[in-house]
Amino acid sequence: MKFLWSYLKKHIWVILGVMFIKLAGTAVELLIPYIMEHLIDNIVPLERLSLVCLWGGLMLLLAMAVRFLNVTANRLSVRTAKRSIYAIRRDLFHTALNLTGNQMDQITLPSLISRMTSDTYNVQSFIQSVQTIGIRAPIMLIGGIAVTLSMDRGLAMILCIMAPVMIVLVVCVSMHGIPLYNRVQQGMDQIVRIMRENITGIRVVKALSKESYETRRFSEANQETAKRDIRASITMAMPGPIVTMFLNIGLTLVVIFGAQRVNAGVTKPGVILAFLTYFNMIMMGVMGLNRVFMMLSKANTSANRIAAVMHVPEDLPRLPQEKGAHTDRDGFIVFDHVTFSYDEGIQKSPPFKLDSHSNTRFAGANRQVCLNDIDFTLPKGGSLGIIGATGSGKTTVINLLMRFYDPSQGHVFIDGQDVRTMDKDDLHRRFGVVFQNDVLFADTIRENITFGRDVNDDGLTAALEDARAYDFVSLYPETVDHQSAIHGSNFSGGQRQRLLIARALAAKPEILILDDSSSALDYRTDANLRQAIREHHSDTTLIVIAQRVSSIMNLDEILVIDEGKLIGRGTHEELLKTCPAYREIHETQMGEVD
């Protein structure tokens, strides 16, 4: 829980104030039964109505004070919990944005979503409760016993015997419940993963009529998680009925022995009534402790899961300039005999625990070499096309260029500098990128394109025109202020791709990467788009990954990749003569070669 304390210590004075207010409120609450005992045993026998009203009014004022103090403490505790969890979620989100590809592969996106939602909620509930129930419950328990000892030690011994037994029971059961809640949170990861898969792939599910199959798959995961949650909840709820049984036995003993002591003249009747009230308070204190330990079990598991992400070691640290590789090869972008495997990348990354009980490494990575001895140079302002079968490693080239991963062998250079020696933010600012599965956010077209960058209206319009998106954007009444739905679902596939290309062009990047970004465009629009890029972005180094020969045939150089190997390199005309695989793709798409 050191991780949690690092956030709570910023609000330590507020927390101490809440605890003091709660302590004062509980102490006042403990006085009310004591005054009631005094009223019954000492004031009522005097038969003076004015004194009865006076002491009754005092009890009413104390009850109002208790309410005021408890409400004030609860409000402050909620505020502190919200501020603390806001800081935790903010830092967790920032960490998630800076995770490397290897780390994302190990943590997985569904688990990250679960940690950012349900886990942070568990922590928030604990922070709120520990300031209120965590103070009130033990004071009720200890204070109730102390007051009853001062009133009648004989009857109070019943409480002194039962209280330790109940506390030990609550603590033992709570410690047993911590690993159970850990398994519950793992089940939540599974549910989030299945839900995310079905939400993003809803059209595929409907198209293949697999609703019943996916419902069954979700139900199985949901039932398994429910079983774990029920088991954990039953375990943590066990002290409740046992404590109630002990306290009811205690109440019965108080009534039996108390009646005998009253008949014997040892104890007054008001003491018995006060004891019954204090017994209820003590029961509330024990049950409150049980609730605090239950929340502690959940919060401990959740805090460990959050800390596992936020404390991940640096996976791809920036190397000092003198430790970086050097190259004498000319070219703005240089791939120097690069070999890469996702599995080797994970083995090189520092290990970290994803959960408090596990140090299991991510086992779902590709164990085959993804790229093998890729070697090429690209001059500044030049253009490069990459073509190949699905899964051949085309996008991996871009992942290495932008340093989402480091090569297993070889080096990547930009402008003569090893990318491992570059600041990641400075490196990424050089790029304008459209990935295969890029998304539009639920915001205006303007915000989707500017994306928080300093792009004026002229630059925005120019980017839309170059991406051949201005024609349909100008038809909206709000033009660039037209609202996009989540994932751009209110645009067609071709419109989405053109808006994404406009986003990449808006900041006038040094390197423009289009990763299969024109698959939904017709040939004429695709040709006009490429012509606009050549005319208005001639100083930009262009890399195009495509499935269609027509999208890359006019570029300066083309790479043909097959199963991670570079099997062809040259211009369109050269590859038609020297690369059978490229010639086959061309014949399939464009017709026979003369």
Question: What is the secondary structure topology, with strand pairs?
Answer:
Blueprint: H1 2-8, H2 12-43, H3 49-97, H4 101-107, H5 109-151, H6 153-200, H7 202-207, H8 211-237, H9 239-263, H10 269-310, E1 333-340, H11 342-348, E2 371-378, E3 383-388, H12 394-401, E4 409-414, E5 417-418, H13 424-429, E6 431-434, H14 445-450, H15 457-466, H16 470-473, H17 493-506, E7 511-515, H18 523-536, E8 541-546, E9 557-562, E10 565-570, H19 572-578, H20 580-590
Parallel strand pairs: 3-8, 3-9, 6-7, 7-8
Antiparallel strand pairs: 1-2, 1-4, 4-5, 9-10
Descriptive key words:
six-stranded mixed beta sheet; elongated; alpha/beta; 63% helix; 594 residues; 10 strands; four-stranded antiparallel beta sheet; 20 helices; ABC transporter transmembrane region fold
Summary?
The chain has 594 residues and is an alpha/beta fold. It has helices at residues 2-8, 12-43, 49-97, 101-107, 109-151, 153-200, 202-207, 211-237, 239-263, 269-310, 342-348, 394-401, 424-429, 445-450, 457-466, 470-473, 493-506, 523-536, 572-578, 580-590; strands spanning 333-340, 371-378, 383-388, 409-414, 417-418, 431-434, 511-515, 541-546, 557-562, 565-570.
What does this structure look like?
Mean pLDDT is 83; it is low at 356-367. This protein has helices spanning 2-8, 12-43, 49-97, 101-107, 109-151, 153-200, 202-207, 211-237, 239-263, 269-310, 342-348, 394-401, 424-429, 445-450, 457-466, 470-473, 493-506, 523-536, 572-578, 580-590; strands at residues 333-340, 371-378, 383-388, 409-414, 417-418, 431-434, 511-515, 541-546, 557-562, 565-570. The protein has a domain at 2-191 and 234-310: Up-down Bundle (ABC transporter transmembrane region fold). Helices cover 63% and strands 10% of the residues. Helix 6 (153-200) packs parallel to helix 10. The termini are far apart. The protein contains 20 helices and ten strands. The strands form two sheets. It has a six-stranded mixed beta sheet with strand order 6-7-8-3-9-10, sandwiched between helices. The protein has a four-stranded antiparallel beta sheet with strand order 2-1-4-5. The protein has 594 residues and is of the alpha/beta class. The chain is elongated and about 115 Å long. Strand 7 (511-515), helix 18 (523-536) and strand 8 form a beta-alpha-beta unit.
